[in-house]
Structures are given as C-alpha cells and as structure tokens.
C-alpha cells in the first residue's frame, strides 16, 4: 500500500487519513515534521508541506485536496454508494466548495493558528520559530471558530450531511479540522447544538478511531475529546 507522509495534528493530514479509512485503505503512516525541512522529504515534495501520498508505483500526490481528487478518480468508482464525491456535477461543486472552505479557509483562520501556537512550537527550535505561543493569534482563532461553528449548524439544519444527503469529503474535512481544535479544548460546542450533534455522528464512525487515539506528548486532550457521547 501507499505511504502517507503526515503530522498527527496537521488537520489536512487528518482529513486524508479519514478519507483513506472510509475507503478501507490502510497506508503506512510516516510522521513528518515539516519545519525540519528534511532533504529526503523535500525531494518528494519541494513545497515541504504535509500531507503527501506516495504510491507503490512511485507516484507522488501532494496536498489534501489533490489527494482527495486522486483517490476519487482511482478508487471512487469501486465504492458504489459509499463514494465521497458525488457523481452529479452540481453535487461535486458543493462538496468541493465546502472542502475548500475547511481545508483552506478554516485552516487559515483557525486551525493553522492553534496548532502552530499550541502544538508545533513545542517541538521547534528557536531558529525554526519555536518559543512561547502568540496569545493574540490564539485569541483570533478562538473568535473565528465561532462563526465557522454557526455555519456548520446552519448547513446541517437544512441537510442530512454538510453538502447534501450523503457523507462526503465536506464532512470529513470539517471534522478533521474540528478534531484538532477540540483536542485543545477550543471549540465552544455549547453555542451550537446542531453542529455538536453532527460532529458526534462523524466522530462515532470507525474511521475516526485512530484520530481519537492521537496524543501530544505532555499535553493531554480536553476531557471530552474521545467521548463519543459528549
């Protein structure tokens, strides 16, 4: 099977792990700390970012959205009713729109700040940007997560899943990012019951089990992190 270069609390890597698990695929996980800028990794992906999927054939697929599209193109037809990207063009547009919302917008406004400041900096040297967290960045992320949570609640109040009637890449992208924020205890679940109930549904899926087992050394998760009924 393929190798997946990832960092356990890189939310976009978590999204790809969920996708692979939903497809019944078990890659070899290779932990990669992008800030180390390893020469061997840069030869695979010059951008130096995770996630990266490396097929046994030697094909390199970099980036969460590109990996998702690639997996749909190469494995999607074999999933029948469990396909994570709809077959109809309109449905595909909506899934792609929401996938971009979470992999890019949510990452840029929430997860990127919190993971960098609270987790990554713990493992970086001072020359790599390590040190105490920037509390202004953390406060901004905590403010931003609120309107994202409301948007999830708005969508799920009108649909069975975020993009429509079926579980899709949109749900997995949103849940992957929220899982990182939830580990840190920074999701105000009490502010939107619809969003919380949707997340509990996704969190209860077998594909989520390995994510819930992830831990940061010296930093235990929020008390409810692995609780399926929270």
Give a structural overview:
This protein is an alpha+beta fold. The chain has two domains: 3-82, Glutaredoxin (3-Layer(aba) Sandwich), CATH 3.40.30; 89-210, Glutathione S-transferase Yfyf (Class Pi), Chain A, domain 2. It is 51% helix and 6% strand. The protein is built from eight helices and four strands, in the order E-H-E-H-E-E-H-H-H-H-H-H. It has a four-stranded mixed beta sheet. Strand 1 (3-6), helix 1 and strand 2 form a beta-alpha-beta unit. Helix 1 (11-22) packs parallel to helix 3 (64-75) and helix 1 crosses helix 6 (169-183). The radius of gyration is 17 Å and the shape is globular. The protein starts with a strand and ends in a 17-residue tail after the last helix. 37% of the residues are buried. The model has no long low-confidence stretch (mean pLDDT 96). This is Glutathione S-transferase. Residues 1-79 form the GST N-terminal domain. GO terms for molecular function: glutathione transferase activity.
What would you call the shape? globular
Largest sheet data:
4 strands, mixed
Order of helices and strands: EHEHEEHHHHHH
Number of strands: 4
Tally the helices: 8
What multimeric state do the chains show? Answer: single chain
Query: What is the fold-level CATH name, i.e. the topology of the largest domain?
Result: Glutathione S-transferase Yfyf (Class Pi), Chain A, domain 2
Helix and strand topology:
Blueprint: E1 3-6, H1 11-22, E2 28-31, H2 39-44, E3 52-54, E4 60-62, H3 64-75, H4 89-123, H5 135-156, H6 169-183, H7 193-203, H8 209-213
Parallel strand pairs: 1-2
Antiparallel strand pairs: 1-3, 3-4
Helix pairs in contact: 1-3, 1-6, 4-5, 4-6, 5-7
Subunit structure: Homodimer.
EC number: 2.5.1.18
Domain GST C-terminal: 88-222
